[in-house]
Amino acid sequence: MVRGGREKFMAEGYCVKCKAKKEITDGVEEIMKNGRKAIKGKCPTCGTVMFKILGGKAVTPPTPPTPPPAAS
Ligand SMILES: [Zn+2]
Description:
Layout: E1 12-15, E2 20-23, E3 25-31, E4 37-42, E5 49-53
Antiparallel strand pairs: 1-2, 3-4, 4-5
């Protein structure tokens, strides 16, 4: 599915207004504060802003929650 050109991101997102999955239009990649990537764009049908968080790896790996000591 490589078409060349990396300026636009054709990603699927869920439109809350259409209540359906849509291909995000005018998607641009954004880096969130926590270092994760996300795609911000618009719904092709209604123009609602869609935001898709990518499962990209953050700079710092998430620390697994430490299980509480079994005290009983
Ligand atoms: Zn929509």
